[in-house]
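Demo today. Your pick:
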Amino acid sequence: MKEGLENCFAACILGGTLSDQSPTKTFEMNQLKDPDFHLQTDPQDCVAAQVVRMRIAHQSNGRKLDVAIDRTNPGESIYRAIQETLQSDVRSLSQWNIISVAIHFEFLPKADRKPGRQTITVSFPNTCNVRSERSERIEIIQKYLKRWNIDCGRSTQTASNTLGATAATV
């Protein structure tokens, strides 16, 4: 139904048609291999973020490994979980690519927003489920995906000039 309404709006109001291909975003997560990389947030946003799951693929053989933290342990980190799983220093991840991460956002109480938690999944090259989150949180999550250089913007494929080509968001 949503697609039909979008097509009708494009034809009747905008006088055009929607593109069959929406432009794709590109996501890069290899910077998260560095244990010194912190998901810094602004104090005024009243939000904290933590990587709670990471899926990595070995560059030479393509083997995949899913690592998740123990959420019941307050001192747990993804880097400790990787180190324990691989039984080696986390800095040995140079032969691995991050292909997916789950980032847990903790939204603290704020005047214009309810407190709560959201976990999003970002996967290489162009998948992110942030659009299915609560609308008041999407803007903040997108801000940080850009700041942390996870959201690298549009892919190298150029979007067409048809309507809808610029309407896609993360």
